Amino acid sequence: MAARDSDPTGLHRVLDDAVVLPQAARRLDTRPELWPDEVRIRVEKLNLDAASYRQLERKHTAGDGSVDHDGVRAEVLEIVGARGKMQNPETGSGGMLVGTVEEVGPESPLGLAVGDRVATLVSLTLTPLVIEDGLADWDGRGEQVPCDGYAVLFGRSIAAVLPDDLPTDLSLSVMDVCGAPALTARVVGEYVARSSRGVSVAVVGGGGKSGSLSLAAARHAGAGRTIGVVPHEQEAALLRATGLADEVVVADARNPIGLRDAVTAAGGPADVTVVCVDVPGCEGGAILATADRGTVIFFSMATSFSAAALGAEGLAADVTMLVGNGYVPGHAGYALELLRDDAGVRGLFEGRLTHEAGT
Amino acid sequence: MAARDSDPTGLHRVLDDAVVLPQAARRLDTRPELWPDEVRIRVEKLNLDAASYRQLERKHTAGDGSVDHDGVRAEVLEIVGARGKMQNPETGSGGMLVGTVEEVGPESPLGLAVGDRVATLVSLTLTPLVIEDGLADWDGRGEQVPCDGYAVLFGRSIAAVLPDDLPTDLSLSVMDVCGAPALTARVVGEYVARSSRGVSVAVVGGGGKSGSLSLAAARHAGAGRTIGVVPHEQEAALLRATGLADEVVVADARNPIGLRDAVTAAGGPADVTVVCVDVPGCEGGAILATADRGTVIFFSMATSFSAAALGAEGLAADVTMLVGNGYVPGHAGYALELLRDDAGVRGLFEGRLTHEAGT
């Protein structure tokens, strides 16, 4: 059926003239017929990226502050119709989706079966998507979008089967950040394997979703001392109550000297520093909080590549700096295990969901 | 003498109200008196960052295309006078300098002695600088700026003594990119130590300064196969003639599928991929050219953090991605050794200097 062979990256569904990957494409081919290595999902819900939803809401806010939620809904439909994927042209971001496997191509390597209820862990920015119900069940409010339609996964996509023992929203909330604990565990494990003394790990933004999971992962991987850095006393109290960190310190991550001194006072500098706060300007402090030959893992999308590279050079800091790759094999299952095993993590996540639902 | 204690980062010379590192500061304290861990350099030449010089030249170009070089000179003087450092407010970049050690504080850890002729390997963007001759010997043309004045190095700064056996311009040209071969050698060496088969290394931009040194470093560190990727046949011929790479392939690094296929055809995917080309959009191709559990080292300042992070996630690629830290202890000496030991590298660098001098 297909004029061209499939490529595991989804290249065969790019309709642009230039050779670009699906994420960079202007428009994707959304035909429902599958190439042999693809999977089709019947969509039940889209989770829009928070930055994307906020931009749409701002754009459709009138001078008197009232929001035209029908306008927001119409624009999501328009974007998906025009591009064949949900990628906000302003923010460049997408989100994820929940649905049920409808058809599995004979050569799909993803290990999914028809009927599996899954969340996609690759971005909507590269996922062919067709909305079939005109978003009739969505009022244009909030990032959770009930939706009937279908989406296509490629050979190299990732989807995780939703577990039966946890509420869907809780699982999604964990899967959203599951790359951080998996990579943290791997890096910390490498230090533990080659070190005879205790390995120290500092997590900047330790009270957040990816931060609290990273603290749990660091301890699980054998860290001798975990340090959680939070922006204010209120969050410090919450994090202390969970017992996830050996030390909890309050510091402004954008103040390099303040962050360095806080981590040092808590038993640092850290062998591994994990940056989980989405504010710009944390590179210098993270570098200074890290020991010679230590590693900084940047998970924040607010990280500036040049600030990190030039910052380390300017400080003559011999640290390894990792771009936080959101994909590590088994990451979703590992993060869910951490949540199940640690009442502190689970409490933070459940508290956040309750809080969000209540606002 | 000093009201406040010195900090190895140079924080004590920041005159801004906010607590920021010298690189982020608006203005630095340029007093010639040293804190105990500082070093003062008598400056003989500034090497402006290429992007910075081009911006200044563009700004002072009239409608008829003529350049007001006196205006360029005046603006460099103005910037250094106002900020106490040479940091182009538009590009944010600086450069480096050459000079002679004039005074060494009793607690300086840099290992320098009065009279040493050195190049600073930390950016001018964080180096206190005073120009004393009004740049009288500079005509405002080109990035090389003869200059009499002084500069200050902090406890954590880096300066390399210029070797006697090589021309100054050649040494500077090597030192400018010396972080890349040092980090490449370290990473490749780790793969070689734990692998029983030959380790393959692809260098994207293998014909350039940092690229050719990285190819030499990869082989020196024990790589079993080195692949140089260049943008066109002319550069391929130059690189082939040096013998630095086992395979030389031509590919557009911005075309992810093209880059993947070229490296694969040359014996890849690579265990280690080194990105040395300063063009945006190379993240996807570098990720796809790299083997599962391989490492990508990004040295290009055109690298987008989010494109790398989201790209790897979108491709379900389990690769380690490093921010190319320009500082590795001993990096300048190592790069100079590679140049001395390899006629191919030396030929490329000398050819480039001759070419630049002739244009």
Question: What can you tell me about this protein's structure?
Answer:
The structure is a homodimer. Chain A has about 350 residues and is of the alpha/beta class. Helices cover about 35% and strands about 20% of the residues of chain A. Chain A is built from 11 helices and 12 strands. The first copy, chain A, has helices spanning about 50-60, 70-85, 170-175, 180-195, 210-220, 235-240, 255-265, 285-290, 305-315, 330-340, 345-355; strands at about 40-50, 95-105, 115-120, 130, 145-155, 160, 200-205, 225-230, 245-250, 270-275, 290-300, 320-325. In chain A, β10 (about 270-275), α8 and β11 (about 290-300) form a beta-alpha-beta unit. Chain A is globular, with a radius of gyration of 21 Å.
Brief overview:
2 copies of one chain form a homodimer. Chain A is an alpha/beta fold and 359 residues long.
